[in-house]
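Appendix B, record 7
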Amino acid sequence: MIPYALWFYWIAARGYRMRPWRSPLLRWRIETYSGIPAEEVTFGLFWKFLWRERHSLAEFLKWGARMKKLEANRRELGQSEPRP
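Structure tokens (predicted):
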């Protein structure tokens, strides 16, 4: 899960890697998940949100890692669509 978490962060915080709380994508994700307006996301609020939602975020990262692995396996087998 750690490699996927780093990969996700690298993609999601592009251009804002040293200050992820300013990333439009991460602000939008926080807004759609929690209802906190994106414009109100600050350094403190960002880290408070990450700490408060750490368990949910860990589950999201586990799910994302599984989906990425399934996609890689599908590509390896030459399948474009999942089998029923």
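Remarks on this record: The CA atoms of residues 37 and 77 lie 43 Å apart. The two ends are 27 Å apart (CA to CA).
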